[in-house]
Design goal:
Strand content: 35-45%
Number of helices: 0
Strand order of the largest sheet: 5-6-1-2-3-4-7
Helix content: under 10%
Low-confidence stretches: none
Structural class: mainly beta
Number of strands: 7
Order of helices and strands: EEEEEEE
């Protein structure tokens, strides 16, 4: 799988925007804080890399629709 890099756009299977890569931490993609939902801007959210379907150019395409992506909070 191509390398996931900082500032890459993340989209769901349906093409909807999910977030922007802050960095890769182990098997999780850390999202930038600006992509956190309202009320959660003070911490980062993560997406497990098992949901990555493809990496094309500067875009991470997930294997699930944007509204179905489970996002976890920083531990």
């Amino acid at each position: 799988m191509p390398k996931i890099r900082e500032n890459m756009k993340i989209i769901g299977k349906n093409g909807a925007h999910v977030g922007t890569v802050d960095r890769l931490e182990g098997n999780r993609i850390k999202l930038t804080r600006k992509d956190s939902p309202e009320g959660h801007k003070d911490h980062h959210h993560y997406i497990d890399t098992k949901y990555v379907g493809a990496v094309e150019g500067d875009t991470v395409k997930l294997s699930v629709n944007a509204d179905a992506v489970p996002k976890s909070e920083a531990a």
